[in-house]
Amino acid sequence: MPRMVGRAKRIRVPEELQSLALAPRHLSLLSYLLFDGPMTVNDLAARLEVAPTTVSLMVGELSRKGILERREDESDRRRRIVGITDDKRPSVDSWLARGADAWRQALNPLAPEQRQMFVQTLQAYEAAMADGEDD
Protein backbone atom coordinates (compact mmCIF):
# COMPACT_ATOMS: atom_id res chain seq x y z
CA MET A 1 0.00 0.00 0.00
CA PRO A 2 2.75 2.56 0.78
CA ARG A 3 4.31 1.93 -2.66
CA MET A 4 0.95 2.51 -4.36
CA VAL A 5 0.39 5.75 -2.46
CA GLY A 6 3.93 6.86 -3.22
CA ARG A 7 3.51 6.15 -6.91
CA ALA A 8 0.19 8.02 -7.01
CA LYS A 9 1.79 11.04 -5.34
CA ARG A 10 4.50 11.10 -8.03
CA ILE A 11 2.02 11.47 -10.89
CA ARG A 12 2.89 14.83 -12.35
CA VAL A 13 0.19 17.46 -12.49
CA PRO A 14 -0.05 18.67 -16.11
CA GLU A 15 1.72 21.97 -16.66
CA GLU A 16 -1.55 23.73 -17.49
CA LEU A 17 -2.94 22.82 -14.04
CA GLN A 18 0.19 23.36 -11.91
CA SER A 19 -0.42 27.05 -11.29
CA LEU A 20 -3.96 26.37 -10.02
CA ALA A 21 -2.78 25.02 -6.63
CA LEU A 22 -4.97 21.93 -6.69
CA ALA A 23 -5.08 20.09 -3.39
CA PRO A 24 -5.61 16.37 -2.70
CA ARG A 25 -9.23 17.11 -1.78
CA HIS A 26 -9.83 18.11 -5.39
CA LEU A 27 -8.64 14.79 -6.84
CA SER A 28 -11.66 12.72 -5.80
CA LEU A 29 -14.11 15.39 -6.90
CA LEU A 30 -12.44 15.72 -10.30
CA SER A 31 -12.20 11.93 -10.66
CA TYR A 32 -15.94 11.48 -10.11
CA LEU A 33 -16.74 14.19 -12.65
CA LEU A 34 -14.25 12.82 -15.17
CA PHE A 35 -15.31 9.18 -14.99
CA ASP A 36 -19.02 9.47 -14.09
CA GLY A 37 -19.82 12.69 -15.91
CA PRO A 38 -21.47 15.91 -14.77
CA MET A 39 -23.67 15.73 -11.66
CA THR A 40 -25.27 17.85 -8.97
CA VAL A 41 -23.51 19.10 -5.86
CA ASN A 42 -25.68 16.79 -3.75
CA ASP A 43 -24.67 13.77 -5.84
CA LEU A 44 -21.00 14.71 -5.49
CA ALA A 45 -21.41 15.20 -1.74
CA ALA A 46 -22.98 11.75 -1.37
CA ARG A 47 -20.14 10.11 -3.30
CA LEU A 48 -17.44 12.02 -1.41
CA GLU A 49 -19.22 11.43 1.91
CA VAL A 50 -19.07 15.11 2.88
CA ALA A 51 -21.64 17.85 3.38
CA PRO A 52 -23.09 19.54 0.29
CA THR A 53 -21.80 22.89 1.59
CA THR A 54 -18.24 21.50 1.51
CA VAL A 55 -18.67 20.41 -2.10
CA SER A 56 -20.30 23.71 -2.98
CA LEU A 57 -17.25 25.57 -1.65
CA MET A 58 -14.88 23.33 -3.64
CA VAL A 59 -16.99 23.74 -6.78
CA GLY A 60 -16.96 27.52 -6.32
CA GLU A 61 -13.19 27.51 -5.91
CA LEU A 62 -12.62 25.30 -8.97
CA SER A 63 -15.14 27.31 -11.00
CA ARG A 64 -13.22 30.54 -10.29
CA LYS A 65 -10.07 28.76 -11.50
CA GLY A 66 -11.81 27.81 -14.75
CA ILE A 67 -11.73 24.05 -14.12
CA LEU A 68 -15.43 23.49 -13.42
CA GLU A 69 -18.61 25.01 -14.74
CA ARG A 70 -22.17 25.03 -13.44
CA ARG A 71 -25.07 24.87 -15.84
CA GLU A 72 -28.80 24.40 -15.68
CA ASP A 73 -30.18 20.88 -15.71
CA GLU A 74 -32.23 20.73 -18.92
CA SER A 75 -34.81 18.45 -17.29
CA ASP A 76 -35.19 20.62 -14.16
CA ARG A 77 -34.09 24.24 -14.51
CA ARG A 78 -33.99 24.66 -10.72
CA ARG A 79 -31.08 22.21 -10.48
CA ARG A 80 -27.48 23.03 -11.33
CA ILE A 81 -25.17 20.47 -12.88
CA VAL A 82 -21.42 20.63 -12.27
CA GLY A 83 -18.93 19.48 -14.90
CA ILE A 84 -15.34 19.90 -16.00
CA THR A 85 -14.92 22.69 -18.55
CA ASP A 86 -14.19 21.60 -22.11
CA ASP A 87 -10.86 23.42 -22.22
CA LYS A 88 -9.55 21.80 -18.99
CA ARG A 89 -10.92 18.29 -19.66
CA PRO A 90 -7.89 17.09 -21.69
CA SER A 91 -5.47 18.13 -18.92
CA VAL A 92 -7.59 16.59 -16.15
CA ASP A 93 -8.00 13.44 -18.23
CA SER A 94 -4.29 13.08 -18.92
CA TRP A 95 -3.62 13.55 -15.20
CA LEU A 96 -6.19 11.13 -13.77
CA ALA A 97 -6.95 8.61 -16.53
CA ARG A 98 -3.71 6.68 -16.04
CA GLY A 99 -4.81 5.62 -12.55
CA ALA A 100 -8.25 4.58 -13.80
CA ASP A 101 -6.70 2.60 -16.63
CA ALA A 102 -4.39 0.87 -14.16
CA TRP A 103 -7.35 -0.11 -11.93
CA ARG A 104 -9.25 -1.46 -14.95
CA GLN A 105 -6.22 -3.47 -16.05
CA ALA A 106 -5.77 -4.90 -12.54
CA LEU A 107 -9.46 -5.68 -11.95
CA ASN A 108 -10.61 -6.88 -15.39
CA PRO A 109 -9.12 -10.41 -15.04
CA LEU A 110 -10.98 -10.93 -11.77
CA ALA A 111 -14.38 -12.57 -11.51
CA PRO A 112 -17.15 -10.33 -10.13
CA GLU A 113 -16.96 -12.07 -6.73
CA GLN A 114 -13.21 -11.48 -6.59
CA ARG A 115 -13.65 -7.80 -7.45
CA GLN A 116 -16.26 -7.51 -4.73
CA MET A 117 -13.92 -9.13 -2.21
CA PHE A 118 -11.13 -6.77 -3.23
CA VAL A 119 -13.32 -3.69 -2.79
CA GLN A 120 -14.61 -4.98 0.55
CA THR A 121 -11.03 -5.56 1.68
CA LEU A 122 -10.08 -1.97 0.80
CA GLN A 123 -13.18 -0.70 2.62
CA ALA A 124 -12.26 -2.76 5.69
CA TYR A 125 -8.72 -1.33 5.58
CA GLU A 126 -10.10 2.21 5.34
CA ALA A 127 -12.46 1.58 8.25
CA ALA A 128 -9.64 0.15 10.36
CA MET A 129 -7.48 3.20 9.61
CA ALA A 130 -10.35 5.48 10.64
CA ASP A 131 -10.87 3.71 13.99
CA GLY A 132 -9.95 6.04 16.78
CA GLU A 133 -9.53 9.14 14.57
CA ASP A 134 -12.25 10.97 16.48
CA ASP A 135 -10.81 10.12 19.91
Summarize the structure.
62% of the residues lie in helices and 11% in strands. With 135 residues, the protein is mainly alpha-helical. Strand 1 and strand 2 form a beta hairpin.
Please bin the fraction of helical residues.
55-70%
Oligomer: single chain
Profile the largest sheet.
2 strands, antiparallel
Total strands: the figure is: 2
Question: Helical segment tally?
Answer: 7
Q: How does the helix and strand content classify structurally?
A: mainly alpha
Radius of gyration: 17 Å
Mean pLDDT across the residues is: 86
Shape: globular
Low-pLDDT runs: none
Physical arrangement of strands within the biggest beta sheet = 1-2
Strand content: 5-15%
Termini Cα gap: 25 Å
Q: Output the helix-strand order.
A: HHHHHEEHH
